[in-house]
Amino acid sequence: YVQMYFEPLYQKNERIGTLLVHRDITKEYEVDRMKSEFVSTVSHELRTPLASVLGFTELLLNKELKPERQRKYLTTIHTEAKRLTSLINDFLDLQRMESGRQSYDKKTIEIGSLLEQVISQYPMDPAMHRVVLERAADRSVVIGDKDKLQQVFLNLLSNAVKYSPSGGTVTITYKEEGPDLVIEVKDEGLGIPDDALPQLFNKFYRVDNSDRREIGGTGLGLAIVKEIVQEHSGTISAASVYGKGSVFTVRLPQSDETVPEVGPAVPNE
Ligand code: ADP
Predict the structure, then answer these.
(1) How far is the CA of 187 from the centre of ligand 1 (A)?
(2) Which of 67, 114, 185, 233 is the 20 to 30 Å CA partner of 167?
(3) Which residues pair with 192 in a beta bridge?
(4) What angle do CA 170, 172, 173 make, to 5 degrees?
(5) Ligand 1 in contact with 245 (CB < 6 A)?
(6) What is the pLDDT of residues 152-170, one digit of tens each?
(7) Residue 191: exposed, middle, or buried by beta-carbon count in 10 A (0-12, 13-18, 19+)?
(8) Quick check: ipTM above 0.90?
(9) Ligand 1 in contact with 212 (CB < 6 A)?
(10) Which atom of ligand 1 lies at the shortest distance from residue 190's CA?
């Protein structure tokens, strides 16, 4: 995008001509476009759950309903309210991280057990998706904030599942590469078009292809992941074969420290 305008040209207070200025405003235009896209995404994401909360509460208030039906409506209200909360939390988290107001509580962490926890806590339909953890490192110690690193892998795992609508296996691998610990989250889902890859970690960016228009989201998840990984002196990248699957690679510096053992409780005599 080019902006063009004329500017008078003076020399010693005397007008000697006119300058035609060409300015490349592609960047500004893109930022504006992304901002307005965000406003429409967020208003849609806020309105949809709110509309369903309002609709179902009205039904519950105005009608004599059988207990099973009441329960069904209340469950929907609960789910939608949770969705709203997580959207607002993501938004505030990212805001806090970007402004440097987020505090990190860093300790020695065993990534292997952190990944096991993330997988075991993730609600999944085993008839649809399978998650495999491949351990290819003897040790996997890093210095990091446990909750924040859990959020990284939870976001990557939930994307892997969410963008694999016809199921498949999600493979999480961790291995050592020189001084780094490398963690890969690989899926057999929709994949990512080549031209989208460079923008994937920008906040509010969502791939707008027909294969995923129905899948909800705000484009904040990967921006949060990137902020956290960078705060841990790490890097994140994505690769994909469109239509076949994607792999997200997180690289974190390893630590030589040992994780303090939490032994079994010894009964007092
Ligand atoms: P959201 O999922 O809320 O849209 P994210 O920041 O987590 O936001 O992801 C940005 C975009 O990247 C998504 O809209 C999606 O199209 C694409 N994406 C992320 N992870 C995957 C994946 N594992 N497979 C395919 N596409 C993905």
Answers:
(1) 12
(2) 114
(3) none
(4) 145
(5) no
(6) 999 999 999 999 999 999 9
(7) buried
(8) yes
(9) yes
(10) 25
